[in-house]
Amino acid sequence: MAGAAGVIGIAPPVRIGERPDATDPAGAQKHGAPIAARPEPELKLSGVGHAFGPSAVLEGVELSVSRGETVALVGPSGCGKTTLLHLVAGLLPLREGAIENRFASTACMFQQPRLLPWKTARENVALGLKARGVARAERAGRADELGRRLGLSAQDLAKFPHELSGGMQSRVALARALVLDPQLLLLDEPFVSLDIGLKAELYALLAEHQASRGMAVLMITHDLMEAVRLSNRILVMVAEPGRIARRLALRGDPARRDDDWVYRSTAALLRDEVVRLSFGLHKAGVACEPALRVVGPGAIADLGTAAGAFAIEDDPPATKPSAHRC
To answer: What pTM does this model have?
Structure first.
C-alpha cells in the first residue's frame, strides 16, 4: 500500500472457509472436482459495523457494487462515509460484519492529491507501477500515454507538484489511480476543491475511462448534484450511528444526462423527507414535501418534474434525528 501517496493497490481478500483453488481450473482438476464458473467481479458488504472506542460509527451497513457500476454514498459530515471507504480499502481492521471484494485490483483517490513533492508528475503517476515491478521504460510510457488522455502534456509531467496548479495536481492524482487499470476505484471526494469547469472535465475523463474498461466505482460525496450526475445508485446515510437510510436507483446512462436533467433531479431529491433529515434540513414546524413516495421494494419514485428519474430499491429503516436536528 502507498497511503501517503493517495493511491492504493489492494488485493482482494480471501474469504474464510473457501478453498483457494475452488474456482481455479487447474486446482479443481487437481482435486478431481468439477470446474466451477469464475464468479462475476463484485464488492459486497454485509452487516458492517465499526466503533472508535465506545462510540459506534457504523452499524449494519449492507451494499454491493458490480462491474461497470457507480455507487455514490452521500450523507452529512460525521456519518461514517470515509470510515466505510477505509474499511473497504483495508486501511482499518474490520471488526463487525463481512467485506467480500471479488475485483482483481482496487485503487483509491482521496480528497487531497497527496503527491510526493520530491518526484515529478510523471514519477508520481507511475508510482504504483513501480511498486508492481514494472520496468522503468514501460511505466514512463504508460504514464505519458494516460497523462495525455487526461490533458497533461510532456512538459506538465516533467514538473514537480509545487509547479502545478491545483487542477493539474488533481489530474495527476487521477492518472496515478487509473494507470493501475483498477477493476474497482474508491473515490473519497477528490473533486471537492475544484471549480465547476475542472470538475466537468474530470467527470468526463473518468466516465470515458470507466466506459472503456468496465471499471466499478464506489464514491463518497457531500454533493448531491455530483452523485446524481455520475452514479447509477445513490445510498443516503444518516448518522449516530452511520447507516444507510435510503437506496435509490437512477434511471438511464450517466453519460447521457444533461445539465437540465441533473438540476431537476437534484431538486426533486432534495424534497425527499429522508434526504432532508439526513442533512439536517428540517426546520421546526416546517413539514417537508414527500417527493419520494415509498410504495414498497422496487417502487417507482414520484419526483414531480423529474418523474421516473429514480426508483426506490427498498423501504428505508426508521431514522432518529439527533438532538441538534429537528
So the answer is: 0.78
